[in-house]
Amino acid sequence: GSTIGIIGGGQLGRMLAMAAAKLGFRTVILEPQADCPAAQVANRQIVAPYDDTDALAELARSCNVITYEFENVPVEAALELAEKKPVYPPPIALEISQDRFREKAFLNDCDIATAPWYLVNDTRSLAAGLAAIGGPAILKTRRLGYDGKGQVRLKGDGSDDLAAALDAIGNTPAILEGFVAFEREVSVIAARDREGESQVYDIAENVHSNGILATSTVPAAITPATADMAREAAEKLMHALDYVGVMGLEFFVLADGSLLANEFAPRVHNSGHWTEAACAISQFEQHIRAIAGLPLGDPIRHSDCVMENLIGNDIARVPEILREPQAVLHLYGKAEARPGRKMGHVTKLKRKK
Ligand code: ATP
Ligand code: MG
Ligand code: MG
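Structure tokens predicted for N5-carboxyaminoimidazole ribonucleotide synthase (353 residues):
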């Protein structure tokens, strides 16, 4: 059998390792934290920083193909690995998605519309951006933001303290984005194999709470035309990146049904967790199939569903969830339930309408 390397040992790495095992693969994870969710299911863990040269050499030696579960893998590490073994998704997808400036520019170059945005480095460019875009707007760090961290909202009516806003995001390079008065948020989970064939799951409607994904509901309350636009955007983006693997692409839906892309993740995505319960082939298996050179599975959905994240103390609801019919529970094996920490998720199935 063949061995799959996974950089990152969080819950996404854990679920990828489970899917890989189901298809008969061995997995080796590279993760500095010894007691991580993926360690409980992977065959082996290399406990080292993601950019450790010896660890990367060891990972390349022990695996036939390498993937990753988070978008902040150091690009240099991915490129180093790619000289020895195939790395999917391609490192260029990492490089673009880990910088919001490059990401927005790339989306726009693919003719995928986004909110208006402006590159910000200091109070002067922030003032210029606010003048260009108008308020309200959101200031976001270019790098390392997730779950809504590294973001500040601005009114744009002259009352904002621009220096304080830049302080609040650590005075790092940023972009200013127009605030989108969206009707709803949706995401598309798409896959592309090594031959360039693609498959797209049904679009999910996402609700965030305090910047963190709370629920994904399928089907989304959007028209077929809007759903087609989302699929087409994902396919265009994957083609432009010569992508291999699963990707998540997030959108804002406007009142007229048009879409603005927000960001993409070059990996399996939280808003695709429902696929493990409502589809024969989950996003995790789809990703493993894509990177391992296997044919993609049929992404058809057999049930309507709502996926709920279990965050922090939500874990206390597990006993009652276990008693609910048609509730598919998935826990990540994390010992400590800190506030804002993703502990698991539950997908509640309903008969398909
Ligand atoms: P993730 O955990 O999804 O990677 P993130 O920290 O990268 O999150 P975004 O996805 O950019 O951040 O933003 C988080 C949420 O904040 C969005 O899903 C949306 O609800 C809201 N948001 C972000 N940008 C905008 C915007 N321009 N207009 C309106 N709401 C926004
Ligand atoms: Mg993000
Ligand atoms: Mg997001």
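The chain has three domains: 3-87, 116-178, 184-350.
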